[in-house]
Amino acid sequence: MTTIFDAPEEFATTALAGFAAIYSRYVRLVKGGVVRATKVPKGKVSVVIGGGSGHYPAFAGYVGPGLADAAVAGDVFASPSTAAVARVCRLADQGGGILLGFGNYAGDVLNFGVAAERLHAEGIDVRIVPVTDDVASAPAETAAKRRGIAGDLVVFKIAGAAAEAGMDLDEVERLTRYANDRTVSFGVAFKGCTLPGAADPLFSVPKGQMALGLGIHGEPGISEEDIVSATDLATLLTDKLLAERPAGTNRVGAVLNGLGATKYEELFVLWTEVAARLKDAGLDVVFPEAGEFVTSLDMQGCSLTLLWLDDELEQLWTAACDTPVLRRGATFTTEPATDALDDTEGKLTFAAASDASKVEGKCIAGIVEKIAQTLKGAEEELGRIDAIAGDGDHGQGMRRGSAAALDAANTAVAAGAGAASVLAVAGDAWADRAGGTSGAIWGLLLRSWSNALSDTDAIETDAVVKGARLALEGVTRLGRARLGDKTLVDALVPFVEALEKNTASGKSLVDSWAAAAAAAQSAADATASLTPKLGRARPLAEKSIGHPDAGAISLALVAKVAGETIAAN
Amino acid sequence: MTTIFDAPEEFATTALAGFAAIYSRYVRLVKGGVVRATKVPKGKVSVVIGGGSGHYPAFAGYVGPGLADAAVAGDVFASPSTAAVARVCRLADQGGGILLGFGNYAGDVLNFGVAAERLHAEGIDVRIVPVTDDVASAPAETAAKRRGIAGDLVVFKIAGAAAEAGMDLDEVERLTRYANDRTVSFGVAFKGCTLPGAADPLFSVPKGQMALGLGIHGEPGISEEDIVSATDLATLLTDKLLAERPAGTNRVGAVLNGLGATKYEELFVLWTEVAARLKDAGLDVVFPEAGEFVTSLDMQGCSLTLLWLDDELEQLWTAACDTPVLRRGATFTTEPATDALDDTEGKLTFAAASDASKVEGKCIAGIVEKIAQTLKGAEEELGRIDAIAGDGDHGQGMRRGSAAALDAANTAVAAGAGAASVLAVAGDAWADRAGGTSGAIWGLLLRSWSNALSDTDAIETDAVVKGARLALEGVTRLGRARLGDKTLVDALVPFVEALEKNTASGKSLVDSWAAAAAAAQSAADATASLTPKLGRARPLAEKSIGHPDAGAISLALVAKVAGETIAAN
User: Fold this and answer.
1) Is residue A14 included in any domain, yes or no?
2) Of the candidates B70, B82, B96, the residue with the CA atom closest to the CA atom of residue B16
3) What residues of A are in contact with residue B218 (Cβ under 8 Å)?
4) Same domain, A164 and A57
5) Of B35, B121, B334, which has the smallest distance from its Cβ to A39's Cβ?
């Protein structure tokens, strides 16, 4: 619904004033409309467009060089008055006559038509072109009765380009009518919009249904049907338009238009299927646009518009224009990139490693193997713990990550990598395949640890301990968790501290590691008394009290297995 | 809600592919992101940005000359993986190093951070800048903890402009961090969004309330309050940001951002008040933007972003860029228009009139006076008839229109206008002041009629009759109603036909008019049996059966009064 307004009856006027204030580099505000803020050559045909408000960027957003000279704005969903149309036309007139464009609605036909007659009487040559692109509103045989919807943009673009090119009024009118004859649109609506100050929507579509061919002010459509997939919707829209394809046409301009609350990503998803259907039909698409070009406040729905191109129309469709909404033409001198982009993961190459380090690398791969085996076995249990206060995918992520780490480690060993490289690529693979925050954390942990090792020197206890500290620093530097936040960090900190303390006191790495793993396990168990502090609102945070954190538990588990494997070597 | 999709789990990937297909003139699709489709100079710093999907145009819509070199896209509202970030960076790298920008969220900090470390290890210099503009998410003293919202656009714009200008990585990083330090945003949300395939919204705001400072993924805000007027909302947003205004700042860049279902006109209305408050605070606004720049699917809400400018930042903020969404810089060579636009209604001047025609003009003004008096008296009754199947404003419109017509006619008479001019301006004034379709129709009717008269020759019966026919033609040419549609036309057609028939058979104008007015009255009464056929869906159409059309009744009334006045002269 429309939520931001002061007095509803001043909504349209205030919105126009706000638009003109923001885009004063494009337009100047006049009573009932806007005119270009930049100089226009004397004698140029003026393209003046307009209609009701509530359809932005239709119509004021189309004003600028290469498109419209001025726009007239009525009240929300209501035609501007005859006087407003005539007034804005007089201000836009440069002596070359006026092409007056608007959607084909009774009120607009009347007010723009009467204004044109009034201006004629004053000696200004005005040609009116009502846009009639909506194939749902009348059959092709009576196309002149069709309504104007998102085809407005297309037809006005052609008119604006023709006028900017210096053509005279006869020619601009001919091309505008020709563009209108070759522009077709078909749309669907999912949900109605609410006028400023109104308590209820202007109309409604039954939940789960879509209205085919519904007009931009809620005018009756053809039928109501169940909402379909993007693929089927693309077929529905394109079939309807392709039925009117003129013989010999193999190029089209296209606009996939959102009505307000149907968002860009949805339009992009739909476009993949629309594009496929147009391609199947042997059509090349020229300068397509997807976005919001003719809206109906926050109505939910979309429409597809096609412009059947020939050389003449294509030149005008692709011509430069510069408006708040549609801009074409070179701002920068660019040329297409020609380098091939290889986005496949290349085969990793490794720095030369010493034989000793290669052996240690193999040793590390062996530790990773045990970890992967253990995590595979623990998948269900870790998932169960995680599900208490999370989405329950922790076990799956750990299993997937460690398996990928093992693959990568084995590949690196086979390629002759040293210890540091084996651990590093194992971490990378874990991060990339596990997904989620914990995958990235594990990747960071292993890669940071590897920074204390090398591919040439033998691994000393000091390096292992230093690696553990680097791992903790890495995780807390880029991760956000701190001690007490009920995350893996609650087990990692005591692990690292115990490892440092025990080795410093002269204990062997194996003994120190065992002590550290035990410390990690106690700390992981103790997370049961904590409440999560991080991240988004967690309605389940309280439910987790009395249960340990899955991430801390899995860290303790990995620490234990790794220690056992080191001891066995 | 999100309505258009095929498999929900492929929504983000498909949307990115569709975007890249539409805007292939800007971007090339790679796995997990897009890179510029145009050549980039070797050695240029690459600006790579990204984050979750569902925020279009953030982030892919910012790719192009003068802004980003590439964008990485995660799943809907989820960080891209470390591997994806690293992969896209490698493809965008031109040897000048990489500025990696993203919003300050745990998952993004982690994945972009880990990717940066991985790239460093590969010899690519990468600097990460998390955007922290959301003042609601942490106090100014701990600004580094703030989330990134619509300030993303602003900070990336500065980074892109600095890189495009050929600055080195140190300088680009410095300016990007500086821009981030000087960018603040504050937002409100009215209604949650629904993820593709989800049955329920991600979060909800109580009806009639707004959540202050709510994050773009539904992260907790500061508080919930009653929805306020546009004026109060502007105060709320600007006060919050002005509290952080750096000393000595008197110029700002500004972005008024809609989250998805809060539409452009609402933002423009809000802007009028925001602009007033910024002006009151002594701030000049440079290149403001209002629209959708960082969305959250179809979330309803908006945010205001300010960039505290100095000379260095202003140059970068206003620099040229060319992306699917934000474009700045000259496409056309233009200069500001300097002509004064006078949109006040000028004093009408009239062609020289004969004395006889001036007398007749006064006579016409006398007829209009009687009509205005009669319609004033009939206002309530006409409103009552109209209210049965319409909005009940017909009596008001007719009263207002005829009163304006009388004023205009008297003014014209005083200025020495002839008969044709008096009738024409009376019609124009009626159309302009009455409002609605019937106002425009009455304006058209009188002006068309005046075309059969002149300002020099005396009015003959033939001219009056011809005028009536022109009036009917005018009304049916531009109006859409036909006989039987239950409109004024149902009374006008028999009036004109009776006037023609009776005068042709030799009756006097007075007698013929009386007969024509009687025919109009009978026909108007007979509209009671008709059902409206025109215009939008009319749920009340059936209610109108058994009641005459208000427009036909008022035409018959005007015809009767006019005839009586003609007879009395």
Assistant:
1) yes
2) B70
3) 536-537
4) yes
5) B334
